[in-house]
Amino acid sequence: MTITNVAAPLITADAASLRHADAVIQSINLPSQGIAVQDPATAETIAHIPDAGVEAALEAVGKADAAGADWAKSSLRQRADVLHAWYDNLVAHTEDLAHLISREMGKPLAEARGEVKYGTDFVRWYAEEAVRPAGNFRDTPDGGASLLTRRSPVGLAVLITPWNFPLAMATRKIAPALAAGCPVVIKPATLTPLTTYFAVQLAIEAGVPEELIQVITTSNSGAFSEAVLLDPRVRKVSFTGSTPVGRRLLELASRNVLRSSMELGGNAPLIVFNDADLQRAVDGTFAAKLRNGGQSCIGANRIYVQDGIADDFTAALAERFAQVPVGNGLGQGTGLGALIDDRAVAQMHTYTNNAVTLGATLLTGGHGYDSAGNFFAPTVLDHVTEDSDVAKSEIFGPIAAIQRFTTETEAITRANATEFGLAGYVFTENLDRALNVADSLETGIVGINQGVPSNAGAPFGGIKQSGLGREGSSEGLEEYENIRFYNVARRATA
Ligand SMILES: NC(=O)C1=CN([C@@H]2O[C@H](COP(=O)(O)OP(=O)(O)OC[C@H]3O[C@@H](n4cnc5c(N)ncnc54)[C@H](O)[C@@H]3O)[C@@H](O)[C@H]2O)C=CC1
Ligand SMILES: O=C(O)[C@H](O)CS(=O)(=O)O
User: Fold this and answer.
1) How far, in Å, is the centroid of ligand 2 from the Cα of 124?
2) Which of 7, 275, 385, 469 sees the fewest Cβ atoms within 10 Å?
3) Going by DSSP bridges, is the β-strand pair 445-448/423-427 parallel, antiparallel, or unpaired?
4) Number of folded domains in the chain?
5) Same domain, yes or no, for 87 and 223?
6) Is 4 domain-assigned?
7) 292 and 259 housed in the same domain
8) CATH number at residue 314
9) Contact present, 398 and 410 (Cβ < 8 Å)
10) What is the pLDDT of residue 459?
11) How far is residue 95 from each of residues 110, 115, 120, 332, 349, measured CA to CA in Å?
12) Contact status, residue 199 vs residue 189, Cβ threshold 8 Å
């Protein structure tokens, strides 16, 4: 099979939406011009961001550290009020944020609005969580003393985020850090940095102390992390991105024994049983695969379908994929936007060709477009073999790779045959089977008849080589807290 591009019409950007996005970009205070930021749908340069060196990064550490001294002394109510104000300001700018996300990352405007809802939910959750009383008073088992436990801010946190959810990955880290009383230095991906700059600008407008959140962008992220993670003022690192980079950051974090949160790569299995509700399984798989154009660490990567339902399922899924409108995320009705860069598109061609060469059947898609943008068609491959690259690698794109199975035990064994353990999915109308399979999956997250399991109220994170720690819910706050205890001697006074 050869790499093909087709001249099928792509949806173009709506002029008013482009003007809206570019007006937001103009409103962002970018301290200097260094690195070009491109629109993945058109290859246009839409902004230039600072290219900070080590000196500027360490200066940011100093500013955050200084601002953090007062923030650590703030009352829980003060922290909550500021986070509520930031939430309100973000929500008030939903359209600005959504247009900006679409412009710099490529996702359809409707999905970008969904990300704004998801990302702001983290700020609201930690505004509410900030005042939750934590700690307790207990007696030692043998008496004679009491134990008081309390929580304190872990200290200056370095946050490093990926390009695929430019707002949500930033707020999922900044909000709990602030709620716990910590200052932050955040380094967003240089592919999609503008949303972080804008969101932090809105935070300062809402009353977050000006120097408490420092944003650093740099073309040399390795030098950045080697400098800041070895700085004694830094006490925490929280990273979302690929497992190889996570390993490197953990090596650096080990030097000063930093508290570390790692949200890393995935290879999610999605299992459809014969007793699944067909429509529910197709809808859930469509969402789990095509959300964010498949560029999600929890995206359905290996789709296992039981023999009895497989023909109907694959035909229905292929029909859904074939109907997805492809084009500029700022266009009317776009269902799948541009992928983040041309390397991603080339990778989709390689994955498709490799799978078909090894025996897979291409049911729909499998091609790119004659365009300056990074487009690849929604693709469904059936009868994928286990030695195919798509069966072993994190696809991170709009390719549904379907494999068939016969027994429940076989499906679980194959699903767990990976070093990753972030998310998994199971579709069945049998409650016992759903919970038995969920219990057996070696993942931190399971979607049961549900293709989008993420929620600000849930402790998001992986096991095995998909990461350490959790983000979201009350567990996400503990990542930024030290738990301490006082042992108080007691004696009778009456
Ligand atoms: N577990 C999760 O929640 C998520 C995991 N990911 C994973 O991330 C990958 C795709 O996202 P990418 O941004 O391409 O990942 P990436 O790991 O290449 O980059 C992520 C961030 O780390 C920075 N970075 C890279 N090398 C660094 C270094 N040596 N020191 C400091 N920072 C460094 C990048 O500039 C970016 O800001 C996939 O593997 C995906 O599974 C992506 C999103 C969420
Ligand atoms: O970047 C990702 O893939 C996210 O962590 C997945 S989610 O939390 O947005 O669902």
Assistant:
1) 18
2) 7
3) parallel
4) 2
5) yes
6) no
7) no
8) 3.40.309.10
9) no
10) 98
11) 10, 11, 13, 15, 34
12) no
Residue span of the structural domain in which 294 resides: 268-455
| Closest ligand to residue 107's CA | 2
Residue 419 neighbours by CB distance under 10 Å? 11
Nearest ligand atom owner, CA of 251: 1
State the distance from the centre of ligand 1 to the C-alpha of 188, rounded, in angstroms: 9
What whole-number distance in Å separates Cα of residue 449 and Cα of residue 451?
Answer: 7
Give the catalytic positions in this structure. 263, 297
Report if residue 9 sits inside a domain.
Answer: no
Distance of CA 66 from the midpoint of ligand 1 (Å) = 28
The pick from 460, 470, 473 for probing ligand 2's pocket by mutation, whose C-beta has the most ligand atoms within 8 angstroms, reads: 460
Structural domain contains residue 84: yes
Q: Which two tokens stand for residue 281?
A: 């399984």
Confidence of residue 8 (pLDDT cuts 50, 70, 90): confident
Assess whether 411 and 426 both reside in one domain: yes
- pLDDT higher than 90, residue 88: yes
Residue 440 forms part of a structural domain: yes
Q: What does the CA dihedral 474, 476, 477, 479 come to, rounded to 10 degrees?
A: 140
Q: 238 and 340: one domain?
A: no
pLDDT at residue number 2? 56
**CA-closest residue to ligand 2 atom 8:** 454
pTM of the entire predicted model? 0.97
Provide the 8-state DSSP code for 412.
Answer: H
Please give the Cα distance from 194 to 198 (Å, whole number).
6
Is residue 143 domain-shared with residue 181, that is, in the same domain?
yes
What interface predicted TM-score (ipTM) does this complex get?
A: 0.93
